[in-house]
């Protein structure tokens, strides 16, 4: 009974929790924008964080990308990522990497 309880507790602790990664520990090595797609390649500098996904928000001709990471993973993963986002945004001017705090922004692309 006690062993089963500890197994459940350990299982809950190992469940991956996803959180938005602070843009200060993200690097973007390449950003490309075409009429069809938006491509961002980069990674998470913090070696303990693993890339898990992303969310986007578009407003006022600006795309905000939040990178999600996790400290634990039962699946093979790394901190590197390549995002290929369908460009459904008309007249895009800027792309920012955004943290969970909306004031933490890192500009990664600007229309010329």
Folded structure, characterized:
The structure is a single chain. This protein is 12% helix and 49% strand. With 112 residues, the protein is mainly β. The strands form two sheets. Strands 1, 4, 5, 7 and 8 form a five-stranded mixed sheet that branches. The chain has a three-stranded antiparallel sheet with strand order 2-3-6, with no helix packed on it. It is elongated, with a radius of gyration of 17 Å. The protein starts with a helix and ends with a strand. The mean pLDDT is 84.
Topology, element by element:
Layout: H1 2-14, E1 19-20, E2 26-33, E3 37-44, E4 50-59, E5 62-70, E6 80-86, E7 94-98, E8 105-110
Parallel strand pairs: 5-7
Antiparallel strand pairs: 1-5, 2-3, 3-6, 4-5, 7-8
Keywords:
elongated, 112 residues, 1 helix, 3-stranded antiparallel beta sheet
Summarize the structure.
The protein has 112 residues and is mostly beta strands. Helices cover 12% and strands 49% of the residues.
Tally of alpha and pi helices: 1
Low-confidence stretches: none
- C-alpha-based Rg, rounded: 17 Å
Number of strands: 8
Q: What is the residue-averaged pLDDT?
A: 84
Beta-strand share of residues: over 45%
Listing every helix as H and every strand as E from the N terminus to the C terminus, the arrangement reads HEEEEEEEE
Overall, the morphology is elongated
> Largest beta sheet, briefly?
5 strands, mixed
Helix content: 10-25%
Structural class: mainly beta
From the N-terminal CA to the C-terminal CA, the straight-line distance is 65 Å
């Amino acid at each position: 009974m006690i062993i089963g309880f500890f197994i459940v507790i350990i299982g809950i602790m190992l469940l991956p929790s996803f959180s938005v990664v602070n843009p200060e520990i993200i690097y973007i090595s390449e950003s490309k924008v075409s009429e069809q797609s938006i491509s961002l390649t980069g990674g998470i500098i913090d070696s303990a964080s693993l890339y898990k996904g992303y969310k986007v928000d578009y407003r006022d001709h600006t795309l905000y990308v939040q990178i999600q990471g996790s400290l634990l993973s039962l699946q093979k993963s790394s901190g590197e990522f390549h995002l290929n986002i369908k460009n459904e945004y008309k007249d895009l001017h800027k792309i920012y990497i955004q943290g969970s705090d909306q004031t933490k922004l890192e500009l990664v692309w600007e229309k010329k």
